[in-house]
């Protein structure tokens, strides 16, 4: 089972990821090249999160087909809430904003 503690750093932010158990069998890249990438002799990783119901269904098929269970889904935890949107996340929900703390007028640096 994939572990978010061993998540590859190159995964696109948000819920689906590949962890370091990947044995680069290329299965996910061939089955779903729109969302998985990686170098020829390297681990795979999620290059774009699925956005549509069809893509999410395909992602689940790829997760089920991974021979070492290296693809995970951490739900709405971790970087899902805090990562900035990527250029691929055009359909993502709005990210939470954190207003600047109020400072006295004389402390402007
Ligand atoms: S299917 Fe699993 S083991 Fe194969 S390349 Fe993808 S993540 Fe790695």
Secondary structure layout:
Blueprint: E1 16-18, H1 27-31, E2 36-37, E3 45-46, H2 53-65, E4 71-73, H3 79-82
Antiparallel strand pairs: 1-4, 2-3
Bound molecules: iron/sulfur cluster.
TL;DR?
The chain has 3 helices and 4 strands. The protein has helices spanning 27-31, 53-65, 79-82; strands at residues 16-18, 36-37, 45-46, 71-73.
Features of this protein?
single chain; 109 residues; Alpha-Beta Plaits; binds iron/sulfur cluster
Describe the fold and architecture.
20% of the residues lie in helices and 9% in strands. β2 and β3 form a beta hairpin. The chain has one domain: Alpha-Beta Plaits (2-Layer Sandwich), CATH 3.30.70. It is built from 3 helices and 4 strands, in the order βαββαβα. The chain has 109 residues and is α+β, with helices and mostly antiparallel strands. The strands form 2 sheets. The chain has a two-stranded antiparallel ribbon. It has a two-stranded antiparallel ribbon with strand order 2-3. The site of iron/sulfur cluster has 14 residues, from α1.
């Amino acid at each position: 089972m994939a572990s978010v503690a061993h998540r590859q750093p190159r995964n696109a932010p948000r819920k689906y990821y590949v962890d370091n158990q990947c044995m680069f069998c290329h299965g996910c890249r061939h089955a779903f090249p729109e969302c998985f990438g990686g170098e020829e002799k390297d681990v795979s990783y999620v290059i774009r999160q699925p956005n549509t119901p069809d893509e999410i269904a395909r992602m689940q098929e790829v997760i089920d087909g991974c021979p070492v269970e290296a693809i995970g889904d951490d739900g709405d935890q971790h970087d899902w809430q805090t990562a900035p949107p990527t250029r691929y996340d055009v359909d993502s929900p709005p990210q939470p904003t954190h207003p600047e703390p109020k400072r006295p007028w004389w402390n402007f640096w």
